[in-house]
Amino acid sequence: MQIASEERRAYIVQLTDPPLVSYTVQGRHLETDSEAARRYVGYLEEKQRAVLALIGKAPVQYHYTVTLNGFAAMLTQAEVACLKAAPGVMQVSPDTVEQLNGPALKNNQQ
Questions:
Q1: Which residues contact 55 (CB under 8 A, 6 or more apart)?
Q2: What are the Cα distances from residue 87, in Å, to 17, 51, 100?
Q3: pLDDT digits (tens, 9 = 90+) for 21-52
Q4: pTM over 0.70
Q5: Which of 17, 62, 22 shows the shortest CA–CA distance to 44?
Q6: Distance (Å, whole) CA 9 – CA 31
Q7: Which residues contact 70 (CB under 8 A, 6 or more apart)?
Q8: Can you tell me the distance from the alpha carbon of 50 to that of 57, in angstroms, rounded to the nearest whole number?
Q9: Lowest mean pLDDT among 44-48, 56-60, 65-69, 95-99
Q10: What residue numbers bound the domain in which 62 lies?
Q11: How many CB atoms sit inside 10 A of residue 67's CB?
Q12: Is the separation of the CB atoms in 25 and 34 below 8 Å?
């Protein structure tokens, strides 16, 4: 049985470096399959590994590099506090499920 403060919950951790989609070279966006894009994604992954090293073995669910620079992980409250204080971390947010309702959803289902 886990103590409540050690209970893991899903969070999205956003880092400060811009994701691939907003990275430009000489004013032009990178082609996602270019060598420059692969190098930049490698750089983002290295930064993510450095942040994850601060919290040990928290289970990581996803890594994001293209439209968001960050990761989804199962974190304790202590790990959340550590990440919020860490350099290079922009935001730590609980992962939530959103329900879509209304005309837009109904039109897409038809």
A1: 73, 75, 79, 82, 83
A2: 11, 9, 35
A3: 887 777 777 788 889 889 999 999 999 999 99
A4: yes
A5: 17
A6: 35
A7: 12, 13, 14, 15, 48, 64
A8: 12
A9: 95-99
A10: 4-109
A11: 9
A12: no
Residue 27 backbone class (left: φ over 0; alpha: ψ -120 to 50; beta: rest)? left
Residue of higher predicted confidence among 1 and 73: 73
How many domains does the chain contain in total?
Answer: 1
> CA 20 → CA 30, 32, 45, distances in Å?
8, 8, 11
pLDDT of residue 31: 80
What's 37's domain CATH number? Answer: 3.30.70.80
